[in-house]
Amino acid sequence: MKPGPHRAALPACLAAVGAMAAFACSPEVETGAEPASAGTISYEEIVAKYADPDSRFVVLEGNDGINVHYKDEGSGPAVLLVHSSTGDLKDYDVWVDLLSADYRVVRLDLPAFGLTGPVPSGNYSIDRFMTLVDSLMDHLGIDRFAIAGASYGGLVAFRYAGTRTDRVTALVLLNSAGIEYGGRGGTTERVRDPSAAFVPKRYTTEEMGANLRYSVNDHGNITEELIQRKTDYWNVIDRDREGFIAMQMYERGNPERVLARVRAPALVMWGGDSRALSPETAQAFVDAMKNAKSTEKIIFDGGGHFLHISRPEATGRAVKAFLDREIGSPAKQPGEKT
CA–CA separation, 71 vs 167, rounded Å? Predict the structure, then answer.
């Protein structure tokens, strides 16, 4: 195996992209030489602390030398899980427990998150992430698969499903970014601020806890372990800079046009009381996927933004029921381990 802002500013950070909570928010503009990262944890240290026996690492050919952390578990039709902002693949542990008896479940840490290394070229765009998905699934010998994404991961998932229609067997979106700006910030394209400058930021566990409580309505699932893991991942050296770069590269574009190209069956799940994205936006996703094989919407009453963390069993069961109906089969299918 190889391996600034204060608490009150967090809701404003959420208004940037979907729920890119605390990911790349800078409350001020600086001039002069770019400052050093505020991170204090090396990449080697974070891998040593959090990698486990199921962790896999690969440097994929043609992908800028990124050291990708992923897990590949279970057997059956293939499913790829893409995490949210402030997220990592461990957020899906309960889903994997529910799905892996009948599905081959692949999950990865996107660049700038979890245990995946930095992008040497500095390209933290959504297009870069989709190419990474292509390469990882090719590496694993999986031609066709379902893809599920939460928040920022939903943005990756639906753009992938709308541009790789031949590869995607089903699409699951969970409080997806991409149509509405976070913090219920509307749907009008925002002009990128060319004067914005990187401002280093190190997070405390108290600040990260406040961030999570904003996005997870079921506070009983915000454990000390979760807060510490998220804080540690944020405080990896240069993660604050990577987040700023990703934010600067984000373009909303025309999500409805991309969604209209989705052909696979689609499930949209939403938290009825999400502070980050309006429940009405769930219907906007359904309406835009007018050429999908089928669409289904589930609103979780009282649910917040990171539903896969706050209500993992309920959302995981809903996903399994959807997949069982749309792609599940006792027969061998492409992507299944032998």
Answer: 20
